[in-house]
Amino acid sequence: DSQPPLPNQPPPDSVDGMVDSLVAPLTEMAQPVKTHMDQVELLRKEKEEALAEEIRNTKAALDAVRTAYEEELSKEKAKYKEALLTMYTEEYVNEIRLRHQEEEEKMSEELQKLNMHYTSKCEDYKLLEMKLQQIKQDYESHITQLSTSNNHLEEMLNQEIDRLKEFIKKKPSLASLTTGSATMEEELYDAKIMVRVKDAELQKLRSQVKNLENSLHRTTEEQRQTMTQYMQCVKTSGEAKKQFQEQIAQLTERLNKVLGSQGLKANIKRKWTSAANLKAPSFH
User: Fold this and answer.
1) Any long-range contacts for 106-110 (C-beta under 8 Å, 24+ apart)?
2) CA 51 to CA 282: how far, in whole Å?
3) InterPro entries in the record, alphabetically (predicted)?
4) Nearest CA to 131 among 216, 217, 219, 229?
5) At 209, is the secondary structure helix, strand, or coil?
6) pTM for the full model?
7) Checking CA distances to 21, which of 38, 107, 246, 281 falls within 20 to 30 Å?
8) 283 and 131 in contact (C-beta within 8 Å)?
9) pLDDT tens digits for range 163-218
10) Phi, psi for 90 (deg, rounded to 5)
11) Distance of CA 211 to CAs 88, 155, 216, Å?
């Protein structure tokens, strides 16, 4: 019988041996990866523990700072309260109140003086206005009388002139005078005397007219001066009123700052409303 040929190499021992030969390299490669992962996990745990420790330390430090701040704040509050109790004693408050009262009284006196001064000026201006109105009425009446008298004198003068003209027209001729009677001579003599008398009366009337013209001129000049004084008084009144109102406002503001109380401010405003709203004379 024939025999099969013999193999050159012996067959493998088993299948397991082949698997082991294939897995062994993979196992060798996985070992460093596992080691690396273990190291990463270890580092993560260390970092978490360090972070937790840092958080605990920070919280403790913050608690310590807050506690120290609260203690310091409590001490400062206590010192401030003690200082207030020491500073703002009843004697100190009474002194401040007395000082404010003195300042208020001083300002009130100044306001009263200003009020009296302004009221006096207003009364003076009212009297001056009444006097001016009376003077104007007197001047107007006097001017009317002068004008009436002047017209009457002028009318009388015109009548006398007309009478003289009429007499001259009716006088007799020279021939009749030489041959006339004594009655005509007497009439002519009387006429001459009358002419002289009328001429004297005319001169007197002219003198009266001149005097009336001078009186009218003086009256007009006095009225002009009176009107000038009146305008100056009006200007002075406006300036005094403006200055008084400014002083009232300044003193009231200062007084309100000193008092610092709304109720007192209202009282002061009510007290001096009448002074601030005093109506000056119109002069119109």
Assistant:
1) 107/251, 107/254, 107/255, 107/258, 108/255, 110/251
2) 91
3) Actin_Cytoskeleton_Reg
4) 229
5) helix
6) 0.35
7) 38
8) no
9) 777 766 775 554 454 444 556 667 667 777 777 777 777 787 778 778 877 877 78
10) -65, -35
11) 86, 17, 8
